[in-house]
Structures are given as C-alpha cells and as structure tokens.
C-alpha cells in the first residue's frame, strides 16, 4: 500500500518509522510519503491560511495549495487514482470496519488540516472519506492520520507476526476481546484463570467467548446490542 500524507508538519509522521509500521515500510508492504503542503504555495511567505469568510476566530486553510498538492500527488501513478481521506471532527466515526475497508485500498492520501480546518470546497472536490477519530478536537489532522494509518497498516498482509491475531482482536467480530494473561501464574495474589492453563483448547475457546460477551455487555452495551442484532454475538455463543 502507498500512503501519501499532506501536512504543514511532515515531522509529525516520524513515529511511522518505528515498530510494526516501520518494519512494514522496510519490507515494502507500506510506502508512506509525507509532503509539506507549503511546497505548493507560490508567495514569499508560503502562506497556507487566511481569515474565515463570515468572521469568527482562527484561520482557514486556503484551497489553492491543497488543490495543487492533490492534483500533483494523485497524478503520480499513471492509470491509478488514490482514495483521499480527510480527518475531521465532522467525519464518520473511525471503526475497525473502516480500517478493514481502507486496508483493501492500494493507495491512500491523507489531508491533514490545521487551524479551523481546510476550506470546505477542497473537501467537496477531493475527499472520498471524511473520518473522525473521536468526539474531541485535536490541533491538527496529523495525529488522526497516525491513528488511522496504524490501524490500517497492522491489517496489511504479513505485517502482524501472527496473522490470526488481527482476526481475534477486539472489534473484529464486533465484540471486545477477552482478558489476556502471561507468566507468572500468580501475581499480587491474583491467579491466572485455571481454564487457560488446562491445555483444553475447546474449553479455552468457550471461556474466551463467554468473557468476550460478558465484557462487551458490561463495558460497551452498544456493541453487544449491535452484535446481537447482526447475529455475531449469537454465533459466538453457539460456537
Ligand atoms: N474547527 C474545527 C471544528 O470545530 O470541527 C476543528 C479544527 S481542528 C482544530 C484542526 C484539524 O484537526 C482538523 O481540520 C482536522 O484535520 C483535525 N482534527 C481535529 N479533531 C479531529 C478528530 N476528532 N478526528 C479527526 N481529525 C481531527
């Protein structure tokens, strides 16, 4: 997968060189390219913002540098067109389903807003997805892009050491994952559940499903209701 990120702070994307996502880039599974939006400005001060029409606080990102950047970047691969993602608090909430959907794309472009956001006409002209990572306001789209890209990258073939682990993670089946444990068997007087030490794979699988259903019901009743409605919870309980 190729991912181009347009931002006025390309250094914000440095963490993508680390760990799992960094290794995916070294192996060539993922190719992240950060671009400085100011490259596509034409004035001496490399201006990317201006006062909002209608008044009010803050500044808005001007459309021309964005249009120039997106025109040039999206022409980089002849015969192909990227899926353009704009992180914004006004977007569709980001979910594991959306991560799975984006992971099937060969090419993504992320537009990182700053200030009061990007002129809406850019979004209208270019965005395939407007995505929110939660009901709070960040200073810019870079951290939202990091969140989205990391969730997407770990779903790419070969990125996770154990390919089964993504399928067993929270949200894959619509539910939260069961609690996990490692050695020592007893820590601060708390013992690892006996079933996990039993060697009985069927019993372990049943325990995990029960825990998954119970935890989801306690912590995220909204998810359990949805999983019950779509049949995921019933399937899990029956298995
Ligand atoms: N004035 C905007 C509003 O109230 O919706 C907030 C702009 S915010 C300060 C600047 C940029 O941060 C946005 O253009 C967007 O790229 C990013 N951003 C902030 N919160 C976000 C969120 N919850 N999800 C995704 N992107 C977000």
- Tell me the name of the CATH homologous superfamily of the largest domain: SPOUT methyltransferase, trefoil knot domain
Strand order of the largest sheet: 2-1-6-5-7
Ligand inventory reads: S-adenosylmethionine
| Quantity of strands, as a count | 9
Give the SSE order as H and E letters.
Answer: EHEEEHEHEHEHHEEHHH
Number of domains: 2
State the low-pLDDT regions, or none. Answer: none
Mean pLDDT rating: 95
Q: Radius of gyration over alpha carbons?
A: 22 Å
The computed structural class is: alpha/beta
Q: What's this model, at a glance?
A:
With 239 residues, this protein is an alpha/beta fold. The chain contains nine helices and nine strands. Helix content is 38%, strand content 17%.
Write structural notes for this entry.
One of its GO terms (biological process) is methylation. It is found in: Cytoplasm. Belongs to the RNA methyltransferase TrmD family. Residues 1-225 form the tRNA methyltransferase TRMD/TRM10-type domain. InterPro entries: Alpha/beta_knot_MTases (IPR029028), tRNA_m1G_MeTrfase_C_sf (IPR023148), tRNA_m1G_MeTrfase_TrmD (IPR002649), tRNA_m1G_MTases_N (IPR029026), tRNA_MeTrfase_TRMD/TRM10 (IPR016009). The structure is a single chain. With 239 residues, the chain is of the alpha/beta class. It has 2 domains: 2-153, Alpha/beta knot (3-Layer(aba) Sandwich), CATH 3.40.1280; 170-238, Orthogonal Bundle (Trp Operon Repressor, Chain A). It is 38% helix and 17% strand. Helix 2 (63-74) packs parallel to helix 4 (120-126) and helix 3 packs across helix 5 (141-153). It starts with a strand and ends with a helix. The mean pLDDT is 95. The structure holds S-adenosylmethionine. S-adenosylmethionine binds at residues 87-90, 112-114, 116-118, 132-134, 136-141, 144.
């Amino acid at each position: 997968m190729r991912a181009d990120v347009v931002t006025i702070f390309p250094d914000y994307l440095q963490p993508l060189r680390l760990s799992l996502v960094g290794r995916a880039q070294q192996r060539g599974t993922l190719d992240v390219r950060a671009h400085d939006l100011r490259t596509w400005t034409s004035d001496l001060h490399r201006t990317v913002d201006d006062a909002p029409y209608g008044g009010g606080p803050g500044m808005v990102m001007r459309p021309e540098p964005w249009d120039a950047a997106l025109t040039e970047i999206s022409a980089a691969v002849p015969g192909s067109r990227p899926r353009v993602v704009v992180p914004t608090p006004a977007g569709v909430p980001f979910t594991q389903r959306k991560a799975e959907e984006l992971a099937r794309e060969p090419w993504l472009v992320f537009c990182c807003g700053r200030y009061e956001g990007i002129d809406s006409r850019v979004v209208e002209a270019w965005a395939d997805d407007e995505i929110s990572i939660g009901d709070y306001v960040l200073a810019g789209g870079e951290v939202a892009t990091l969140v989205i890209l990391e969730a997407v990258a770990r779903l790419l073939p070969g990125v996770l050491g154990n390919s089964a682990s993504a399928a067993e993670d929270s949200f894959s089946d619509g539910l939260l994952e069961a609690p996990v444990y490692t050695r020592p068997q007893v820590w601060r007087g708390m013992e690892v559940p006996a079933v996990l030490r039993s060697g009985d794979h069927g019993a372990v699988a049943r325990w995990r499903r029960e825990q998954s259903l119970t935890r989801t019901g306690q912590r995220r009743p909204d998810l359990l209701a949805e999983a019950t409605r779509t049949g995921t919870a019933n399937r899990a309980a029956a298995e």
